[in-house]
Structures are given as C-alpha cells and as structure tokens.
Amino acid sequence: MLTIRLSRHGRTKVPFYRVVLTEHTKPVKVWYKEVLGWYDPMKHTLEVDVPAIKAWIAKWACPSERVAKLIYQQTKDELFQKFFEHRERNGKTKKEEKK
User: Fold this and answer.
1) Is there a contact between 3 and 62 (Cβ–Cβ < 8 Å)?
2) Are 18 and 31 spatial neighbours (Cβ–Cβ below 8 Å)?
3) Can you spell out the DSSP letters for 18-64?
4) Spatial CA neighbour of 19 closest among 59, 30, 99, 40
5) Structural domain of residue 27, as residue ranges?
6) Does residue 39 form part of some domain?
7) For residues 39 and 27, which has the higher predicted lDDT (pLDDT)?
8) Count of structural domains within the chain
9) Single pTM value for the model
C-alpha cells in the first residue's frame, strides 16, 4: 500500500520535511517513489502539489494523519478531513484528571 508521509531532512534542531509517496513497509529516507512537496515547521510553511496528491489518493494511496492535517489546514478540502479525527481538548492535564 502506498502512503503519503513526511520524510525528515535538515540539520540537528533545524528540521525540514519532504512530503513523499512511499511504500508503507519501506524506510522513508531510503526509498520513495515521488516527492510531492515540502514542509518547514520552523517557518510554518507548506508547499505541496495538491492535484498530484488527489490523483494518488484516487489511486488508493493513503496520507498519514499529520500530512492530512497540514493539507487540510491549507486548503480546507473535505477530502483530507476524513483521514484524521478531530480531538477536543478539555484544558486539563493528566494529573488534574486523576484527582
């Protein structure tokens, strides 16, 4: 099964991610089929080829939850919303919940 996920690159404490299409069993840094974009978490910038990602999803590729959230935040497309679940925060820490 093909997966669209993040591949970490960059230096120590300066992360940089590529959005890649890879087989789910392969290591993401060693082998990937196609680079579909990039994400810089330090600057909060995402640049992806959305039509290519939609085409791969139509061919039964599955994006990871993080990739789906990042693309959904940028495009607000309902297609990517089904690949992650919304979690509500209650504003309490685990220690406060135990009390």
Assistant:
1) yes
2) no
3) EEEEEETTS-TTT--SEEEEEEETTTTEEEE-HHHHHHHHHTT-EE-
4) 40
5) 2-87
6) yes
7) 39
8) 1
9) 0.83
